[in-house]
Design brief:
Layout (H helix, E strand, L loop, with lengths): L4 E2 L21 H4 L8 H8 L3 H14 L17 H11 L2 E2 L9 E2 L14 H5 L7 H11 L2 H17 L5 E2 H4 L9 H9 L2 H18 L7 H20 L5 H17 L6 H18 L12 H20 L8 H17 L17 H14 L4 H7 L13 E3 L4 E5 L7 E6 L14 E6 L2 E2 L13 H11 L7 E3 L10 E6 L4 E11 L2 E10 L3 E9 L4 E8 L5 E4 L4 E4 L6 E8 L4 E5 L2 E5 L2 E4 L2 E8 L5 E10 L8 E5 L10 E6 L2 E6 L4
Antiparallel strand pairs: 1-4, 2-3, 5-6, 6-7, 7-8, 8-9, 10-15, 11-12, 12-13, 13-14, 14-23, 15-22, 16-17, 17-18, 18-23, 19-22, 20-21, 24-25, 25-26
Helix pairs in contact: 2-3, 3-11, 4-6, 6-7, 6-10, 10-11, 10-12, 12-13, 12-14, 14-15, 16-17
Length: 666
Amino acid sequence: MKTLKYIIAILFLTVPFWANSQELRKEVFEMLDLNYPGLEQVKAACDKQEWEKASSALLDYYRNRTSIKHPDIDLNNIKITAEEQKWADDALEHTFFVHKGYQPSYNYGKDINWEYWPVQDNELRWQLHRHKWFTPMGKAYRLSGDEKYAKEWVYQYMDWIKKNPLVEVEKEVFDKGSAGEIRAVEDNVRFAWRPLEVSNRLQDQTIQFLLYQISPSFTPEFLTEFLVNYHRHAQYIMGNYSEQGNHLLFEAQRMVYAGTFFPEFKEASVWRQSGIDILNREVKKQVYSDGGQYELDPHYHLASINIFLKALRMAGMNGFRNEFPKEYVDIMERMIEFYANICFPDYSNPCFSDAKLGDPEEERRNYEEWAKVFPDNEWIKYYATNGTEGKPLPYLSHGSLASGFFTFRTGWENDALVMVVKAGPKGEWHCQPDNGTFELWFNGRNLFPDSGAYVYAGDEEVMKLRNWFRQTQVHNTLTLDGRTIDTTESVTKLWKPEGNVQILVTENPHYEGLKHRRTVFFVDGSYFVIVDEAVGDEKGTVNLNYQLCEGNVRIDSKNNILTTDFNDESNVKLQCFSDHEISLREKEGWRSVAYRKRVPRTAVAFDVEKNDANPIRYITVITPSKSNTAYPDIKAKFVNKAFNENGVKVKVTVNGKTKVLESKIK
């Protein structure tokens, strides 16, 4: 395979040799279309080689330009949070907000050290080069009028250019996962010029340009430095898009921003069209027919929706909406419907794979933005307004069979009972080997939250932390000897979302020699019966793993019972049965509530020894309760005496009421 290169291809990519000595970069006028409406004075000065006059005219043009609209900022209604104000003030002393997982923020020195890496977590260094504090500094400047913010931003901007030159490196350098594999100059370029970070700067600098351009510190000379650097970024992405996934989507969307916000560049239309073409292609490639994004991660699914729609809004506000076909918009609506179906009544999404636990109010505001694109959609309006307007989706339980997400639901209000099951295809990088896992919400609490993702990538210690949270055994599913499953490729055998007994049957080829079939019965909208069958010749200890939320959980090892002890009306009882002897084992349990933040919780495994080719079978009954004392008596047993490819039949008694539950697979 031919090695791709990240290279400097043109003469104007030379950078200045000192941070705060700005040069009037004449080459900028070669990059601009001087025939663009409004640049007449700039062109006249250039024709006479009066470069200072040309740069001054160019700055005047931008300060007075009103033809380009920006969807992400209203200069007449700038708001800054207390947190953003702190980031802005800290940045004056070079204490940079880089990542919420690393607080308090680190100081990068009076002479800024852009290569400082206090913890060998790749995200900490990658995200340094996103300059997250630049925009808060701009807001602080606009609201206070204090020139110190603008002056410092210009200094830091130029300092970054000086100390982070773009040099030739092999593409593989950008993809390495371990800090120990990186070398010298390649190390710095890998972080400063990874395409995702470059695209992030492309997007955010459009806002920063608007915030700072009125400042006396934003001189004509600095304008030329800024535009040359911005052009370098856009040209770089053009030759170095990521190959796939959410990175590619981010980069394409941000090229739409670059080409739309700076139409004065000769290549602007090429940048914009490049991004639009990629998004039009990828929306069909990365999104399944049911609306699920192929990383099978609720957080990145949400991010993908917003990527696609941000590009649409930027283009639409500036006259290019027709470059996105109707199919593109229809797919966005399906993606939103998919997301609404897998979320809980408080707007939180399951933390399957690398998903983050979002803020409910922030998640609701997503619907407000989506409602602007789909003003006639009644169910988007319903979720955007906390149910005060519009109507909810016209069904409750819902299956996305292509993506492998299934929701059993009694309603959309906080007191609902909701189970979301993840059992689909392989998925991409952020997808974890967790097929068959679920989360369960009842009356305001997520009782079985997923373990989530603690960190992403870095040195050996960081990867050890990441890999713990990725283990199959820390999810609500079945393992053999605690091993992470070899294959994640679930097949839906049966999906029946209607009636008093709703049924899901899904099967995953967990290991060579052992498959896992999980059957979920949702009975009378009040409790769940889960049948797990481990089928194959492989021998070892079969583990049925369950992880509950943090808080007091009583464990009855003799009767294989777990009961929560919460002083509110959201509790649960879980009891496990088998036609083999069970050993209940308590084990280490954590869930990640944010990047590098975790809380302890009860985790158990119901172990059964598998000494021959006979299947190991479990029945788990999960009964939510509004009381932490009045739990039902439960009995359960198999009616069919052996595993049957065509289905399972069990008898379950809850508080004296018996149900015979059967799945029939055609």
